[in-house]
Amino acid sequence: MRIVALSEVLPGEPVTNRDLAEKFGLHEQWLDSMTGNRSRYFCRLDTARDVPKSTGDLAYEAARKAMADAGVEPEDIEFLILTTASPDHLMPATVNLVADRLGINNIPTLQLTSGCAGALQGLFTAKALLASGYRQGLVIGADTCLKMWPSAKDSRQMKPAEMVNFALFGDGGGAAVVSADKDGPGLVVEHLFLRGIGLGRKPAQIVKWFGAEGAIGGEAMGEEDYKAIERHVPDIARQILDELVKTQAWELAEVEHVLTPQLNGVMTEKIREGLGVRPDQAVNCVAETGNNGNALPFIQLRRLMEKIKAGSGQKGRVLVATVESSKWIMAGMALRHA
């Protein structure tokens, strides 16, 4: 499988730590030091008409941009995959609404409910479809926190489990056009694995469908065991990279680019240091974009490709590690710049 083109969509203007501090009564310095995220982006219903306002909007824009970059038309797409933790509706599936807007019809459409490993789950599925005989497809990752925004109640009374979504997370979309043809520019996928490792593990993150306004009896819209994430994600990231370099017979120190799990700026830096990944190898964006879930690896890869095109990044080998803590999923990918 070859990744032919990538895209990135961030809605509206960046929301800074000062903005969050003023809205939620938090301390700007605490947000800076505890999260390491300087900004993030949120969909809002009152933004300009051309600014994405939903998961579907983000997914559509990301798909449109990736297709334009690849120079493909709707009739060239043979399957469409959307990975998201925040679909616009339970039914119809957001992927089918996006397909309609793109002018795509008569092909398989798949929607995967997923979190931080979602981009690689989508690519894993795409790789299997390409191996079965399809020639070209589109994989999208998109997420929004829109359903988590309070409207009727005072945001300053939000529970910590609710506020963390605004400190760590953000909205965004990203997409990849993928091809079974390994010849041509882009990123060739040399190895990709995906495993659920949640047997006997408690979920470290739970997000309720009802969102901020649908709770009964004061029930929190979400729960997050940050200590469990902090404890386990670095070890799982190490396992992913160890497996990738062993499979590929690559030395980690000689790999040009490494994409590590990106919950927030502080943890990303700790993971990088713990893995022995040099700053010049690391491809990070979470401090600027927030953790936009399914979109984030696509955004990382797009920014890497932009650096390479601009001449400020090296061509060569790329390692990607993603960890989903909701019920524990690990995924890794080895790429080579074509």
Automatic annotation (TrEMBL):
Keyword set includes Transferase: yes
Keywords from the UniProt entry: Acyltransferase, Transferase
GO biological process, one term: secondary metabolite biosynthetic process
GO MF annotation terms: 3-oxoacyl-[acyl-carrier-protein] synthase activity
Pfam families registered for this protein in UniProt: ACP_syn_III, ACP_syn_III_C
Origin superkingdom: Bacteria
Signal sequence bounds: none
Record-linked InterPro entries: ACP_syn_III_C, ACP_syn_III_N, Thiolase-like
Location of the Beta-ketoacyl-[acyl-carrier-protein] synthase III C-terminal domain: 248-315
Gene3D superfamilies: 3.40.47.10
Protein name: 3-oxoacyl-ACP synthase III family protein
Domain Beta-ketoacyl-[acyl-carrier-protein] synthase III N-terminal stretches: 112-184
Keyword Zinc attributed: no
